[in-house]
Description:
Elements: E1 3-7, E2 10-13, E3 18-25, E4 33-39, E5 46-51, E6 57-59, E7 67-72, E8 77-82, E9 91-98, E10 111-112, E11 116-121
Parallel strand pairs: 2-11
Antiparallel strand pairs: 1-3, 3-8, 4-5, 4-9, 5-6, 7-8, 9-10, 9-11
Amino acid sequence: QVQLVESGGGLVQAGGSLRLSCVASGGSFRSYHMGWFRQTPGKEREFVGGIHWTGSTYYADSLKGRFTISRDNAKKTVYLQMDSLKLEDSAVYYCAAARNWGATHPNEYDYWGQGTQVTVSS
């Protein structure tokens, strides 16, 4: 019912920045809290941060200060601004939609995008 499409991934040098976008369609955008996750082969999907429909945000402790989430309800778009990128930030990044505020686990989210690859080089 709800479709999510990520974009903006690519190759970036360590210390650089990228902004990922996630465009939603199909449902009422303000009915959902949005989250970002990332995953590398052989590892569990990791929570990055989330945003309430009003704009309030929360983040994984290890990423506070470097990653920023925002949303534009008129455009049905969520953004992930990534600054001071490190080699360990390389992963496939996913956006997702949840009905409950504060969700940090993948099984709390109902809809997922296809993911976009971010590769950080030295």
